[in-house]
Structure formats: C-alpha cells, structure tokens
C-alpha cells in the first residue's frame, strides 16, 4: 500500500509482482504457517482482511486454506499489482483504502482476522501506533491481528565458506539505508509493545531466525529489489552505484554469500 502521492519505492510491474509472489511462498515455508497457530481458522463465515494486499497472493493462498464460506477482502491504495477481479476466487473482493485515512464505517468491527505483511518500507515509525489503532478498530470483538515483517536492523551478510566474499551484498544494503529513510525502518521490534498499547491481548511475537537454505533463497529473490529501486529512484548517483554493485553482488551470491534477517510475526487478540 502506498500513499496517494505514489511514494512507493518499488515499481508494481511484472518483475516486482513476481518477486512479491515468490517471497510470499518463501515466507510461508520459512515460518511454517500462513496464519499464526494462535489464531483460530476452522470456523465458517469468517471475514478476513489483508491490508496492503498488493498482488493478492496472500488472499489467494488463504482462500485455498480456509472454509469456502470465508469472505476475504484485500485493502490497498492501488490494485495495479493485483489480478483482474474476475480472475480471483469468488470469495475475494478488493477495496481501496489508504492506512493514512480514517477507517470507513463499513470496515469498523468487520473482521475476524486481519493480516499485514511487507509494509515495512511503507509505514513510517511515527505512524505505526496510529496504524495499529485503526486495525484494532476494524476487528470484531475477539478478532485477531497478525503483522509479519523482516527486521531490517538485523540484516547482515553470511557465507557458506570462509573464503567467500560478501562485501558487495552488504554494500548494497548500506547504500539503500543511507540514501532513503524509508529503506532503513527501525520499528519492527516495537510491534509487540504497540499491540499491547493498543489494547490487544494475548500478544505473542514469533521472532524467527531463518535457516540458511531459506535465507539464501530469500536473499536471491531480494536482489531483485535493488534492481527495481535502481529503475525507480530519481537519485541518479544512487541508481549508478546500484547498477555497479548489483552484478558484483550476484557473483558473490553465486559463490555462496547471502543476506540474512531476523523476522517477526506478531499476533494479538481484541478484547471481547
């Protein structure tokens, strides 16, 4: 989900969509679940929202896993990345909403489950409490909020052999963090506290260390991100440096270097 001025740092094109769809499957395999085990999903007639639904991949996967009576709603400011509505399962609908706006009346107290993911480069630190507050308003009493993100403050290079180099992959991340504050978020570890401050109960954080085989694959997919930013940025010097570093990072990756990141899946329940 991007602000109305289209401040989104990526490109919403076929390459970007494919990156997000592939990363979705890696995250589900890595964590071992689409919806946290603490969240009940066996009931009928559940109403479920995916905020910042993007390509719709989470919704489609949820449609396959949940009871056929479940209503799934994708909320985003742009559906340029989503399939045409007629190509989606019949229990999925898409509705425009910007998290910076007030919650529409029709969404207040509407959902049993709300999922949020891959918003780390969209929501600013100062806006996180207000965003969580709006999501809580959208839950039914007893409903659950799930928010899953990488903690970019923990990004670091790993190698499969001591002789492998990782300088270029680490330089890529440092470049992004230094040039664009949106790409250096610090708030992910704060989410459990923000959930509690918003009145959510039974808050749990699954702080996840990714095993090397998944970390490598996620890193390889994540390299596409740098290419997309090089295309989108208006900073010519940054674009040139990205284009210089990307081939070097790809070569390091082939030889067995990768970026690893701690991830958070935070869940909480609204009071009944």
Automatic annotation (TrEMBL):
<protein>
    <submittedName>
        <fullName>S-adenosyl-L-methionine-dependent methyltransferase</fullName>
    </submittedName>
</protein>
<keyword id="KW-0489">Methyltransferase</keyword>
<dbReference type="InterPro" id="IPR029063">
    <property type="entry name" value="SAM-dependent_MTases_sf"/>
</dbReference>
<dbReference type="GO" id="GO:0008168">
    <property type="term" value="F:methyltransferase activity"/>
</dbReference>
<comment type="similarity">
    <text>Belongs to the methyltransferase superfamily. LaeA methyltransferase family.</text>
</comment>
<dbReference type="GO" id="GO:0032259">
    <property type="term" value="P:methylation"/>
</dbReference>
<dbReference type="Pfam" id="PF13489">
    <property type="entry name" value="Methyltransf_23"/>
</dbReference>
<keyword id="KW-0808">Transferase</keyword>
């Amino acid at each position: 989900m991007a602000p109305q001025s289209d401040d989104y740092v990526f490109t919403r094109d076929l390459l970007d969509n494919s990156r997000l769809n592939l990363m979705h499957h890696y995250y589900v395999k890595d964590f071992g679940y689409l919806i946290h085990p603490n969240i009940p999903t066996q009931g009928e007639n559940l109403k479920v929202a995916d905020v910042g639904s993007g390509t719709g991949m989470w919704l489609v996967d949820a449609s396959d896993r949940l009871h056929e009576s479940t209503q799934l709603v994708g909320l985003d400011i742009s559906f340029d990345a989503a399939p045409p509505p007629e190509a989606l399962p019949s229990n999925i609908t898409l509705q425009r909403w910007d998290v910076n706006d007030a919650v529409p009346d029709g969404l207040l107290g509407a959902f049993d489950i709300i999922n949020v993911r891959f918003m780390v480069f969209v929501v600013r630190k100062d806006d996180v409490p207000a965003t969580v507050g709006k999501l809580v308003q959208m839950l039914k009493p007893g409903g659950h909020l799930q928010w899953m993100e990488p903690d970019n403050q923990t990004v670091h290079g790993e190698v499969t052999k001591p002789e492998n180099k990782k300088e270029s992959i680490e330089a890529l991340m440092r470049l992004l963090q230094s040039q664009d504050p949106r790409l250096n978020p610090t708030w992910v570890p704060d989410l459990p506290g923000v959930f509690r401050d918003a009145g959510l109960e039974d808050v749990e954080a699954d702080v996840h260390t990714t095993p090397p085989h998944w970390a490598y694959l996620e890193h390889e997919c994540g390299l596409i991100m740098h290419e997309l930013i090089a295309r989108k940025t208006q900073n010519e010097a940054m674009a040139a440096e990205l284009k210089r570093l990307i081939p070097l990072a790809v070569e390091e990756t082939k030889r067995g270097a990768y970026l690893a990141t701690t991830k958070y899946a935070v869940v909480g329940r609204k009071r009944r």
